[in-house]
Amino acid sequence: MCLAIPVRVIALDSSDDTGKVDYMGTKIGANFALLKDIRVGDWVIVHAGFAISRLDEKEARETLAMLREVQKASDDDRFIS
Amino acid sequence: MTTDLYHDRRVTAGLLAEIAALAAKTSKPVRLMEVCGTHTMAIHRHGLKNLLRGAGVEMVSGPGCPVCITPDGFHEAAIGLVTGRENFVLATFGDMTRIPTRIGSLQTAVPAPGSAVKIVYSPAEALDLARRNTGRDVVFFGAGFETTIPAIVVTAKRAMAEKRTRFSVLTAFWTIPPPLRAILTSGEARISGFLYPGHVSAIIGLAPYAFVAREFGLPGAVAGFEPADILLAVRSILEQIRDDRPRVDNAYPRVVRTEGNPAAREVMDSELEPADAVWRGLGLIPQSGLRFKPRSSAVDAAVKYGLHPAGDASDAPGCRCGDVLRGVISPPQCALFGRMCTPDHPRGPCMVSLEGACLVHHKYRGPLRAAKRTP
Ligand code: SF4
Description:
The complex is a heterodimer. By secondary structure, chain A is an alpha+beta fold. Chain A has a single domain, classed as SH3 type barrels. In chain A, strand 1 and strand 2 form a beta hairpin. Chain A starts with a strand and ends with a helix. The mean pLDDT of chain A is 88. In chain B, helix 1 runs parallel beside helix 11 and helix 7 crosses helix 12. Classes of the chains: A alpha+beta, B alpha/beta. Chains A and B meet through strand 1, strand 4, strand 5 and helix 1 of A and helix 1, helix 6, helix 7, helix 9 and helix 12 of B. The site of iron/sulfur cluster has 15 residues of chain B, from helix 14. Iron/sulfur cluster binds next to helix 14 of chain B.
């Protein structure tokens, strides 16, 4: 029921709030009535056929940077032990 | 934008080590409730349940599966519609068709002549069915939390705008914050913090959870669904315990905004109003449900067909789904688990829904499976 992973927007039709997203290489339809100001190329979370949230790239990058630090510290631990 | 770093073993190991160090310093056992069924699934699928237990953190499932907490009365009302009315289409999500009740399930029900049960993936598909079947009444039977409700309301509004008088919605709408209060007030689940649902929070934002820290002094964090997302949230909760500074942390900021999705909430507010609701296992919780406002009654199946599906919060004899949903027992503690109740022959909704704690435990119970089954 819920695609808990982000999908990329590949087409939008503002006349009826519908569009298409790329779900692991497959084009699937999605409704965008709940998300304003979406552009083709954005990443979104789709739930029950409706886009409910846009992925914030800046926040995503910050989380990844945090994870990279954990990864690096984990590497170092291994090196020491 | 998806990346392996969220699954990376060194990242997972590093976060688990930090979590173990933090948990070792706490004075009380750490029991965290994951409120969302999709978290239950992710935690088991990625083996985090045991890894976290090893790190000193017990994860407990909560009332986060809308299919599971919907009392049988709703399913029986839906069965009554499709068996009692000719030329009628009942559309719903797949899991909903398999919920066992005293009168069978939607899957085993024999529809009246010209009637049918249709499985849809989205409420929008149900409206499409109504557009194609203009000679038949179409009811979308929708159970959901704040994640799903806006999608259903958009569809209902569309149907009203198109004057599709033969389309209506049988609502089983539940909101997440009230049961959290009920669980904390009863105290029986002995929770030390909450892993807040990622996608419900994408709609409602962080403010609705503030009472957990303010009134109950308990920490919590909104989590995403990758292994690292969940561990980041758990780490945050343990840091809050260490610092004795409970709050609502957002460990999924790439998807969840502090204010949630105001456009989605506006859609809900325009057509729905809060209502007292009965949850399986939890019973009556004041103002924990949503129903259509009188002005949207044209699309309200309960009004149209005179249904009163509320009522009974209890389980089938022997089934302890309600205790599972309150976090009082873990599924294997149910005497029927894996014996009389299996995914092929489920006794209760917790063994049916893909997000149901019993189904998830059964699917990922590993070596227990062989050990427990006596010929
Ligand atoms: S294992 Fe089956 S019978 Fe037991 S609580 Fe879960 S759904 Fe109910």
